[in-house]
From TrEMBL:
The keyword DNA repair does not apply. Coiled coil: none annotated. GO terms for molecular function: structural constituent of ribosome. It comes from the Bacteria. Part of the 50S ribosomal subunit. Contacts protein L32. Keywords: Ribonucleoprotein, Ribosomal protein. GO terms for cellular component: cytosolic large ribosomal subunit. It comes from Actinomyces gaoshouyii. Belongs to the bacterial ribosomal protein bL17 family. GO terms for biological process: translation. The gene is rplQ. This is Large ribosomal subunit protein bL17. Transmembrane segments: none annotated.
């Protein structure tokens, strides 16, 4: 005996509900985002994500299984050839639901359900960002303690020693700032170098805007010659390996 779905049925019969969900999934795969009632969006979400999982498998049996539910060949082609490859590296959570204003007339709750096609951040990039953030927070805490003690104590001495070492270090072809900045010092030196992590960030990379840099390079070659490595790897910094 079929297990009844939790909650009220969307259509007048079980068959009507299956056709309704299949049609909604077809529209979602074709347009990547559709507006429907909140109840239908919540029921469509697990239905569509199971089909995307089969699309990621990509074999003939999975394609035939999907074709039993969605008979539109273009929608199935979009699922297997265009949508599924973009979901590689993402383990579930293929869709998102955003509530919108109620529908005029019957005041039904409405929502937008869309596919999550943004690339998944690599673990190395995330770990590098977390490490940089922790280092910056630790440095700020030391400066705050030193300022509170009037420039005296171990924290102040450590900060002075760090500053003295930073002043002694000189990188060929680079611009060194006493205080880190998120804005480039000139139009030529736009590559950011973080002395704490010894990583560099090129314009347009994932963490470029949020990085506060003390050293600025004109070229990637100068940054690597100074001992800096690409943050998150060469691919994350759009550098040919």
């Amino acid at each position: 005996m079929p297990r009844p779905t939790k909650g009220p049925r969307l259509g007048g019969s079980a068959q009507h509900e299956r056709h309704l969900l299949a049609n909604l999934a077809r529209q979602l795969f074709i347009h990547e985002s559709i507006t429907t009632t909140e109840a239908r969006a919540r029921r469509l979400r697990p239905y569509a994500e199971k089909l995307i999982t089969k699309g990621k498998r990509g074999d003939l049996h999975a394609r035939r299984t999907v074709m039993k539910k969605i008979t539109d060949k273009y929608a199935v082609y979009r699922l297997f050839e265009e949508i599924a490859p973009k979901m590689e590296g993402r383990d579930g959570g293929y869709t998102r639901i955003i509530k919108t204003a109620p529908r005029k007339g019957d005041n039904a709750p409405m929502a937008v359900i869309s596919l999550v096609l943004e690339p998944v951040a690599k673990k190395a990039v995330v770990e590098d960002a977390v490490k940089t953030a922790k280092s910056a927070a630790k440095k700020a805490a030391q400066e705050a303690v030193a300022e509170a003690k009037g420039g005296k104590g171990e924290a102040a001495l450590a900060a002075q020693e760090t500053g003295a070492k930073a002043e002694k270090v000189a990188f060929a072809g680079a611009v060194h700032l006493d205080e880190g900045s998120a804005d480039a010092p000139d139009d030529e030196h736009r590559i950011k170098g973080n002395e704490d992590s010894m990583k560099y960030h090129v314009p347009g990379s994932r963490w470029y805007d949020a990085t506060v840099a003390e050293v600025w390079f004109a070229t990637v070659e100068e940054a690597e010659a100074a001992g800096f490595a690409p943050a998150g790897g060469a691919a994350a910094q759009k550098v040919d390996a």
